[in-house]
Amino acid sequence: MSLIKVTDLCKEYVNDEVVTPVLHKMSFQIEEGEFVAIMGPSGSGKSTLMHILSFLDKSSCGKYFFKDRDVSKLNDDELAQMRSKEVGFVFQSFNLLPRTTVLENVMLPLLYDGVSNSNIRVYKAKQALVNVGLEHRLNYYTSQLSGGEKQRVAIARALVNNPSIIFADEPTGNLDSKSGLQIMKILQSLNEEGKTIILVTHERYTAEHAKRILRIKDGVIESDEKVINRQIAQIATELAK
Amino acid sequence: MNKTSLQLAFKALLAQKTRTLLTILGVSIGIAVVIAIMSAGRGLDKMVMSQLEIYSPNTITVEVKVPATKKTSSENAMGMATGITITTLKERDLIDVGKHRNIESAYGLVIGQAVVKYQSENKTTLLWGQGYSFPEVEKFQLDSGRVYSKEEEESLSQVAILGHATKDALFGEDEAVGKTVYIKGKPFKVVGVAAKRGATFGFDMDNLIILPAKTMQKRILGVDYFINIIAKVKDREKIKETVAEIEEIMRDNHDITDPNKDDFAVNTMEEAAQMLGSVVDGLTLLLVALVCVSLLVGGVGIMNIMYVSVSERTFEIGLRKAVGATNKDVLWQFLSEAVILTLSGGILGIILGAIFALIIYLVAVSYNFVWVYIVPLSSIILAVGFSGIIGLIFGLYPAQKAANLNPIEALRKE
């Protein structure tokens, strides 16, 4: 069973009767435990593909099976449930709630996952923050954090539901290189622990941290290959500094 | 509406304290008006009813009128104001009305005005000449002393009952019963002091002196007629027949064959009560209509604020949906906010309304109206219920807008 199986997937936007095709008949599979980079220039359709894969958007045609489940047949509520149970998001612009503490941000997905006991919510959120090394920032407001710390909060939030897959959309795009490296390090170690990760980026260097790169251009897959000289983020010692 | 959406709603409202407070204030003013008006309505009702309370619904009045005018007292008064005095309502009529089988008791009334003197105090006062049996016909309470007797009236005794305010003006704190006052220079012995009665039909029922009707006719006015005969029926069911029969008796006594030439009118207090009741109903209806407008304005305010809130928090909504919130979760969160806003407005409105109503009460009492201060439970239920419903209705549309946002587009609005 593939985690993700896509056949002849396409997407077009209709605006005032003008049809704009974005994705053209894509087919690929992603197995559990993979670390895949979807790479392409802006306008290539990589974000649209990620939105469909992460249940935020629906395809126009073709098939998308997630754990053998036909996603194209799900309604809005079922898609919301899939987002809640199966995926975690890390966005380029962090997307943390303002005027809200780190802990509350991380607890957010648990609210919609039926975790009604607030002690359990706090416990799980603290665990996730320990995983990203932010246990000392629990009650900080997100506005008090550095960019790198914000992104680590976002990763903790993505992890808190123990999802099958993590989608990271240009996670290093708004960070300096050192913080970016930290984030890639965390993603790589999560992958080592068995999490499936899909990274969306336009940078070759960032994409090379993954194990496999899907290159997309003008809505079609240009290439799909393993990374030979994989970048390993080596900052374990720097993190301590 | 679950606990989580309520908690989220509270948090969001607390994050925007000023806006939340202003919105609540807008709603609460509408609610306060409802409460104040409903409370004032009760006060008005009490005032009107207290005016009628002196006369029971079993009361029939025979009043003089200029022939061929209409039946109502005000038009009679206009007839009399033009200088015509009807002098045909006599002792004989009173006796005959009193003899009717459905009449329990009846008395004659004359009204005049005179200067009353006690020691150095002078006061111009209304004089009510009332037959000795008036306490059997209408509600009457004494602060002290007694009512004059039949014998005193028959013997034209110069005795008087002082109205509450008249007693205060002439005697102050001193005892009045047993003292002598001078009315038109004639000595009258005070036998009683009336309890406080307030105003009835524009008459200040406390600033007057009650005398035996006959004493007043003979000793003060020098006349032999009444302006009113007031009677109480035994069986209220038969009041209509009784009125008709009394009209016949009166026509007989006055040699009238054509009802259009009646120099009297027979009315019941029930008719007066109905008339006043319909006036109060009309007023209430008008006020309710005004109140509806103010509640609607509050509702539109809620809708407006919720719209702003949804637009401002588009990103937040997108994020919530991205991490698993269903449309329903978002709908409930925003609906909860609207309902919390209106309900808080309702509660604040009840408090403000109760204060407004208290102010109205204090003003009314200072004008000597018989008024009550009640915040009716029905108004509280109406206010809270209505504000909750308004919150739901006016919150629904913005909340639906929030719920149906596309998460991808919403997330772009950071």
Which two protein chains have the largest interface (Cβ within 8 Å of the partner's Cβ), and how many residues from each?
A: A-B, 24 and 21 residues
Please tell me how large the radius of gyration of chain B is: 32 Å
Terminal Cα span of chain B: 28 Å
As laid out across the biggest beta sheet of chain A, the strand order is 6-7-8-3-9-10
Shape of chain B: elongated
Number of domains in the coordinates of chain B?
A: 2
N to C succession of SSEs of chain A: EEEHEEHEHHHEHEHEEH
Mean pLDDT of chain A: 90
Return residue spans of chain B where pLDDT drops below 50 for at least 5 consecutive residues: none
Strands of chain B, total number: 12
**What is the typical, i.e. mean, pLDDT of chain B?**
85
The structure class of chain B reads alpha+beta
Q: Percentage of helical residues of chain B?
A: 55-70%
In terms of DSSP E residues, the strand content of chain B is 15-25%
Would you write up a description of this structure?
The complex is a heterodimer of chains A (about 240) and B (about 425). Chain A is of the alpha/beta class. Chain A has a single domain, classed as Rossmann fold. Helices cover about 35% and strands about 25% of the residues of chain A. Chain A contains eight helices and ten strands. Chain A has a six-stranded mixed beta sheet, with helices on both faces. A four-stranded antiparallel beta sheet of chain A has the order 2-1-4-5, covered by helices on one side. The radius of gyration of chain A is 18 Å and the shape is globular. The termini of chain A are far apart. Mean pLDDT of chain A is about 90; it is low at about 235-240. Chain B is of the alpha+beta class and about 425 residues long. Chain B folds into two domains: about 5-50 and about 275-410, no CATH class; about 85-260, no CATH class. Chain B is about 55% helix and about 20% strand. In chain B, strand 6 and strand 7 form a beta hairpin. In chain B, helix 1 packs across helix 12 and helix 2 crosses helix 12 (about 325-365). The longest helix of chain B has about 45 residues, at about 270-310. The radius of gyration of chain B is 32 Å and the shape is elongated. Chain B starts with a helix and ends with a helix. In chain B, about 40% of the residues are buried.
